Amino acid sequence: MTAAWWVLPVAYALDRLLGDPRWLPHPVIGMGKAIAAIEAAIRRLVKPRAYRAAGLLLPLLVAGGSFAVTWAVLWLLAQVSPWLAALAEAALIATTIAAKGLQDAGMEVCAHLRRGDLPAARRALGMIVGRDTGQLQEPDVVRGAVETVAENIVDAVVSPLFFALLGGAPLAMAYRAVNTLDSMVGYKNNKYIDLGWASARLDDIANYIPARLTALLLIAAAWLLRFNAKGAAAMVRRDAASHPSPNSGFPESAVAGALGVRLGGENSYHGVVSFRAYMGDKTRELEANDIVKAGRLLFVVSDLFVLLGTVLVLALAGWL
Known about the structure:
Elements: H1 7-18, H2 27-45, H3 51-54, H4 57-80, H5 82-96, H6 99-114, H7 118-126, H8 138-185, H9 197-224, H10 229-239, H11 249-259, E1 263-269, E2 272-279, H12 289-319
Helix pairs in contact: 1-5, 2-8, 4-5, 4-8, 5-8, 6-7, 6-8, 6-12, 7-8, 8-9, 8-11, 8-12, 9-10, 9-11, 9-12, 10-11
């Protein structure tokens, strides 16, 4: 667990206040460069028929290396001062969280829609989703933003905080490496079906518990915000397993039920249309304010997790 009870709330507070300043080097950039270099080396040195075995090297080297480097840095700082190490750990954990950045991205889409600038809203959405956005109408732009906020409550907040709670900054950084690997090589296409399989599977495993915790926290958050908590619980039970991802259906179905909207449906990727299972019931059209509500759910879930995690650390420290 984290070294001091205040490390987790301080890390979260840093993210809420500062986000990810562009002038500050971010560990994910280094992870991305490492992934690209290792992938290039594998493709240069390994024959395609051995890609599936070589795919194990990516999470082993990148996630394992991220853990080892972070641990070594904190150990060296602890030799100077335990307080310095604890402060550094909070700062490092903060880089693995993206609550502010996620909410800001959604609100940028919302702001353009409120001004009636649909083309700008499409472009803003295109910066945070992989689907084609150039021809989307307003309800589908809103759907894309709400789905992105909902899904990334797990990846960007709960999972890194969960692993930070279990193993401090080293484990949180290893999780961020796994998540970055999945976003870069975890695709089921001809290029990555063999080389990226281990990265994609590890990401699914890492998010399994956090995704389900997120669904429970979303139901609690919906109750606190006086949204539809019963609807959130019902949609998780009914629709979560229908999602093609073993984890993403839990936050998306919970948000859909809490807001009383329907997510999922047809999306276009590079001109190819695909259908994603519906989450929730269509009781009304999606509107820009649903992005605001999704952001409020994001922050309340984050607050709840940090509060409960801090209480757990204090309780265990008192017990020991």
